[in-house]
Amino acid sequence: MKEDGRRSVLKTDEIDEPEIEYNKPTTTTSPSSSTIATTTTLEPTSEETTTEAISHNAFTKAAIYTDYSECSEIGRSILLRGGNAVDAAIAASVCLTAALPHRASLGGGLTMTILNGRDCMTVNARETAPASARAEYFTQRREEAVLGGKACATPGFLNGLYRAYESFSSKTIPFRQLLLPTASICERGINVTADLAEELKRHRSMIINDVSMKNVFTNQNNYTLLGEDDIMHCHQLAAFLTEMTEYADPLDYFYRGAMAEAIAKELKEADLNDTDLYSIQQQVWEVRQAIADPLFVPESTHIAISMLQQEAVWKLDDKLKQGIKFDKEA
């Protein structure tokens, strides 16, 4: 594996576990709560593939990309155990909530675009405003729309991951096993990236004045902010993920059980209640034709659009094979 800081792309020719199943999807994951899962054929290869080969389409088995190397490793391990692109993307995405909490969070939302053969679907599980929220309230209170309890929305992240698992996973790996690797690194400790260290500096005052954040993002001996390459422990997140694995349906735990009550109590200022959590829904869109404006697509726009373009190329290729001719003036 070659790394550029914390970013990594894995050499897929290093896969040597005998249990690997071929013809499984590959995945690319972004840290902004958006996941792109693309399917390609995994074939054995003896060619060395490194980060320099990205532009040459040299990944003949699989490629997993995240902005944190250990999250890439977690996704890779899922593929090696027979999981598909969605399984690996789920595991890597959960990892990013621990490693890059300023960019991915169980308290936020996600979109996941899945390309399976020539079928393209998008799971839209973005966070939603509580039912009692009113846009007019923020007209003269723009700061409250960004910071504080009023800025919190009904989290869709976990709901989207689990619905994607139900509909598109390989079913060879239980959902709980996609969560436990992250619980493990939370307890072991996570190296703070330069990007996260800068974000902590930006929000120093807020962190120091919040007990929960101070316990995670500061050195416990003197309560100074963690810096680049310091070790961050996320014991509460580890406990949460571990407890959730004990439920047959993790959504019951998060959206309808004791955790839902705790979230509603914590976010009472946001006018968010357990009914908002219970009513959370996700949408699955089958992509047939789309007009995309990147200004209004919040995550991984360039990757999603390139996948849609590939879909259009395939459809054109099908028409050409059918002998359909096109007017030169068209």
TrEMBL record:
Stretches assigned to coiled coil: none
Binding of L-glutamate, residues: 126
Source domain of life: Eukaryota
GO molecular function: glutathione hydrolase activity
Record-linked Pfam families: G_glu_transpept
Sequence intervals crossing the membrane: none
Any one of the GO BP annotations: glutathione catabolic process
UniProt cross-references to InterPro entries, sorted A to Z: GGT_peptidase (IPR000101), Ntn_hydrolases_N (IPR029055)
Cellular component GO terms held in the UniProt record: plasma membrane
UniProt-annotated stretches for the region Disordered: 1-43
Bias kind Low complexity: ranges: 26-43
Comp. bias intervals (Basic and acidic residues): 1-13
Protein name: Gamma-glutamyltranspeptidase
